[in-house]
């Protein structure tokens, strides 16, 4: 897996004082206390979300992976209640370079794009990735929002044996690698770049910290300053 999840999460609710000093449990998917499952149920990724999937070609003829489509898109104003940075997840490295795709979901017409050198959506993705029977390739698909909070579904578009298939992409996973949800969520930062409360959990404990501990080095993704 080459996608390790959002770096920041946001909520439309003001959570001032609710979680200060509470341990962040990285070993469970429980949803009633700070953990990865708790984040996925109660919070929304800031600026970008995504998924990493492996595509295996089972047909005798060449399979072409063409891009990504989104559907059931619903957008509203960005969340400004609470900002949280969870513990980091290490990168284990990959033997094969994955194929990166990106979409701006709040664009007037979202289209599949390449990732540029800054890790943002760049030029339109015009390649067709060819897979022969038995070939397998990893695809990392990232969804960005610059101005709104959005929910949506996404499909990988694949052509094979003269037919086009739309493969539904999971947004979250259960233990054991089974899909848990197909609805993606993402929110841009508010235009003021301010929240009612801010939390940092990089050390394994959720700590409420001052707003100025987060420096906005890019329009939608801040960095925590110790």
Helix and strand arrangement:
Elements: E1 9-11, E2 22-23, H1 36-42, E3 44-45, E4 48-56, E5 63-76, E6 82-85, E7 99-104, E8 113-115, E9 121-124, E10 129-131, E11 136-144, E12 149-160, E13 163-168, E14 172-173, E15 179-181, E16 184-187, E17 197-200, E18 205-208, E19 214-215, E20 223-224
Parallel strand pairs: 6-17, 7-11
Antiparallel strand pairs: 1-3, 1-6, 2-18, 4-11, 5-10, 5-12, 8-9, 12-13, 12-16, 14-15, 17-18, 19-20
Task: Give a short overview.
The chain is mostly beta strands.
Structure, described:
- The chain is mainly β and 226 residues long.
- It is built from 1 helix and 20 strands.
- The strands form 6 sheets. The protein has a 6-stranded mixed sheet with strand order 2-18-17-6-1-3, with helices on one face. Strands 5, 10, 12, 13 and 16 form a 5-stranded antiparallel sheet that branches. The protein has a 3-stranded mixed sheet with strand order 4-11-7, with no helix packed on it.
- Strand 12 (149-160) and strand 13 (163-168) form a beta hairpin.
- The model has no long low-confidence stretch (mean pLDDT 90).
